[in-house]
Design goal:
The complex is a heterodimer of chains A (about 350) and B (about 260). Chain A has about 350 residues and is mostly helical. Helix content of chain A is about 60%, strand content about 0%. Chain A has one domain (about 10-345). The longest helix of chain A has about 35 residues, at about 5-40. The radius of gyration of chain A is 22 Å and the shape is globular. With about 260 residues, chain B is α+β, with helices and mostly antiparallel strands. Chain B is flat and about 90 Å long. Classes of the chains: A mainly alpha (about 350), B alpha+beta (about 260). The interface of A and B includes residues 109, 132, 135, 307 and 311 of A.
């Protein structure tokens, strides 16, 4: 489509608006937890786990059932949304499932102090004897591939990468939202222009990328008193899988409503983002083996797909758990303390 | 997709996940049971020290907190069961911080002499227990007459270092609001005086040279409690009277007692 001058101006204006929102939201992502954490620490003060183990035990006696209840409510929200087709419930559940990741932003000796109280739904996963939280560690693969070569060259890009990923995610999300609203204002039947030409679900894609950056930033936080940071990879993995599930369910609905228009749109725009054919073939191989087709089309097929991918990703993450890798104090310290010198703090 | 096939897929997935988590939760295979695996304990400081065949005791005064650092070393495979540390010291009160420790962790046994023990030797028996396995170490120190007359000046010096640390080393987490509990140490040392402060996270040893400027230096070293046996940071003010800024200095290899 040839762009007219007014259309180019509109696009430029919207892009600028998206950049402004992105900067503001990135700042909010990093600063709001600090402000909120300081405020919450008045109500949930830090407890020294070594000096006051009795107080920790006392607190956990209350926190444990609350944690299980929160987790049950979140699971019910996600499942209810999928079963009833009310996707807002599932999205709310996914957000609530991911929200505790911000608890890592607050440095405290007791993991539920201050903003750490957000982690109360994590309590069922917070078992040091099994490292349950690390059963999503395969998610760090892209991070490792990016960080390690720079590290060997003496450059530490860990924090920068997190900020960048958070910013990119928010930019895509904001651009998707503005495009969607613009399409609604123009009373278009389907929003299939601008960023929607490059991703059929830019808002979900933006959320997944943003939450990945938040997860990385959370994993990098040091824990006082020589504690280790288990990271939040499992939570990110499960939240992202639920988001993909919701996106697939939406597409099935769209296909039922207007099959021809949907198929035409699908032929031109990728699901989340464009990937090389061989990567796409590898990623969809389990679905093809399971369903003998390239995508799940019914509710049952969606459930089966979600279960199989969750299991596969947990299986792929299990070497991290069994080998207790990274060594030392975990991801907050990987690949080392001094750029150019691989190895955790404990080995220096 | 039939309900039967979906149930089979879900059942298979759940079985795989449960199996992986169960394997991860299994204790490591070893000949001896984990709760009875052998270990030995080490205690710092060694007192009395053996100097030329003669026992050399460290001194304390009534009310001083004599802090022993206790660690354990697993003799076989690293155990998942902690060692419980206990201690007895007739003639003194005993407080133990971090009673259950794994290898790499540090328990603190604090022995506080009572007035009745002036002139006596306090014998401290520190015992580690894991299941049916125990190990113990005995340490002794003497109680001299005297009182804590250094706290005021030590606190004055501490404030100088703390305000500087809060600004220049925020990564240590030491701020103006950090609470410190002080105790006398090495009461018989005179030209160089020593004092220990403890926050929830740090042990701070402060020493100062009782001398005219510019030889009136003050130094601190910091040990991270419960996971370090020796200091990891040290700073020095070259002259207190000249209000010199603290600068990093070589970190001592051992804690001061």
């Amino acid at each position: 489509m040839e762009l007219t001058r007014s259309r180019t101006g509109l696009l430029a204006g919207i892009s600028l608006l998206a950049v402004v929102f992105t900067v503001a939201l990135t700042f909010a992502t990093l600063q709001l937890p600090v402000v909120l954490g300081n405020w919450l620490s008045k109500y949930f003060p830090d407890i020294h786990p070594v000096i006051e183990p009795e107080r920790v035990a006392e607190f956990m006696a209350v926190a444990r059932p609350v944690g299980y209840a929160c987790l049950a409510v979140i699971a019910i929200l996600i499942v209810a949304g999928i079963v009833t087709g009310k996707r807002k419930l599932s999205i709310l559940g996914s957000l609530a499932f991911f929200l505790p990741t911000f608890g890592y932003f607050f440095a405290s000796m007791f993991f539920l102090a201050g903003l750490g109280i957000l982690r109360v739904p994590f309590v069922p996963f917070w078992d040091p004897s099994t490292n349950l939280m690390n059963f999503g560690d395969i998610s760090y693969l892209p991070y490792m591939a990016l960080v390690y070569p720079f590290w060997l060259g003496g450059i530490d890009i860990r924090e920068v990468i997190s900020w960048l990923v958070i910013g990119i995610g928010l930019f895509i999300f904001v651009l998707g939202t503005i495009t969607w609203f613009y399409g609604r204002l123009q009373r278009r039947k389907a929003v299939d222009f601008w960023i929607y030409r490059h991703s059929r679900h830019p808002q979900y894609l933006g959320f997944v990328i943003w939450s990945y950056g938040v997860m990385l930033f959370a994993a990098q936080q040091l824990v006082p008193m020589g504690g280790s940071n288990p990271g939040a990879s499992l939570l990110w993995l499960l939240t992202s899988l639920v988001i993909v599930w919701i996106a697939l369910a939406e597409e099935n609905k769209m296909r039922k409503e207007d099959r021809e228009a949907y198929l035409q749109y699908r032929a031109h725009a990728p699901f989340m983002f464009r990937v090389p054919t061989f990567v796409s073939a590898v990623l969809t191989l389990p679905i093809k083996l399971l369903l003998k087709k390239s995508r799940p089309e019914t509710g049952k097929e969606l459930v089966a797909t979600f279960a199989v991918y969750t299991t596969l990703l947990i299986l792929l993450s299990s070497p991290f758990v069994f080998l207790d890798w990274p060594p030392g104090i975990g991801w907050s310290d990987w690949p080392g303390f001094i750029p150019g010198l691989p190895g955790p703090i404990m080995n220096l | 997709m039939s309900n039967k096939r979906l149930a089979a897929i879900l059942g298979g997935c759940i079985a795989v996940i449960v199996a992986i988590v169960a394997i991860a939760a299994l204790p490591p295979a070893s000949g001896e049971t984990d709760e009875n695996s052998a270990f030995h304990i080490d205690v710092i400081p060694e007192t009395p020290e053996d100097i030329n065949g003669e026992p050399f005791f460290k001194y304390s005064v009534v009310g001083q907190h004599f802090v022993f650092l206790v660690t354990i070393t697993d003799e076989g495979q690293e155990s998942e069961v902690p060692v419980h540390v206990s201690a007895t010291a007739p003639g003194a009160e005993v407080v133990i911080y971090c009673k259950d420790i794994f290898e790499g962790e540090v328990a603190e046994v604090v022995v506080i002499p009572t007035p009745a023990s002036i002139g006596a030797t306090i014998e401290v028996t520190i015992t580690g227990t894991r299941g049916s396995v125990t190990d113990e170490k005995v340490a002794s120190f003497e109680v001299a007459e005297g009182e804590d007359d250094r706290q005021e000046y030590a606190t004055e010096l501490l404030d100088k270092f703390v305000s500087w640390l809060a600004t220049n080393h925020p990564e240590l987490g030491i701020t103006a609001d950090t609470t410190w509990n002080g105790t006398m140490v090495s009461p018989v040392w005179l030209v160089v005086s020593h004092y220990l402060f403890f926050s929830e996270e740090w042990e701070l040893h402060i020493e100062w040279h009782i001398m005219v400027p510019p030889y009136d230096w003050a130094k601190i070293d910091l040990r991270h409690r419960f996971d370090e046996l020796a200091p990891s940071y040290a700073f020095e003010i070259s002259s207190v009277d000249a209000a010199s800024e603290p600068v990093p200095m070589e970190v001592p290899e051992t804690v001061w007692r």
